[in-house]
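Lab notebook, bench 4. The sequencing result for the construct came back, and we need a structural model before the next group meeting so we can plan mutations. Quick request posted to the team channel:

Model the 3D structure of this chain.
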Amino acid sequence: MNQPYNVFLKNMARSLLLGSCGWLLVACASPNQNGQTQIIVAAAASLSDAFTEVGESFATNHPHITVDFNFAASGTLQRQIEQGSPTDVFASAANQQMDALEAQNLLLAGSRQRFARNQVVVVATANSDLNIDELTDLENDSIQRIAIGNPATVPAGTYGKAALESVNLYQPLSDAQKLVFGENVRQVLTYVEQGNAPVGIVYATDAAIAPNLEVAVRIAPQQSGDIEYPIAIIEQSQNPEAAQTFIDFVTSSQGQEILQNYGFLTQTNL
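Done. Here's the predicted structure in token form:
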């Protein structure tokens, strides 16, 4: 081949490579044009409020790192990561999703750790005239709809299902078509807040930020199973050092205090 044609091929290859980097949300470029390192944190929907504040405090302490959050159900985030969605840090509301990624070698070895715990509760609208003192009361004829996360993808729904199964209620309620499934725990909370369901099963941390709802039943860990929140760096991360810096902040006294303020059990009371 002559030299001009070789140059043409090299330029074409360079263009394809740059195009690939663009498809990956410019993950190939680090730092970005502003001299900052960008990381993408995929976090469970139940962490939305707490992690938003964590992100604000983190930005103050680490102005050279930009954090973009992707909040969704943990199962949804797991699938996105498996499909190659650009992600640097994953914070799950359950070990199940993290275990699945670890089994596929999609986590950076040694980066996984637990940073918080939670509890599931039954909530109802404030001043509700429903008589709910324990889980078995959900079978009462006065309760026709019960909002719960989809157990296949929403950890809060998985825990809620386990709790209902512990009192032999999940299948009867399902057969009676009383269960209304949400695609994340915040959607379940909204169903109850907007009156689409008189009661719902959500995290205690979600109930704490809903002024128009009240906790009717606190579900014991023996019924739901321990609710642990793990966090880890994704193997494909383009910025593992910045990702670790974020995790270090989450597990620091400052990060843990923010989580506690939102009702999470943290390192001091795990």
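The first strand starts at residue 37 and ends at 44.
Will bring this to the meeting.
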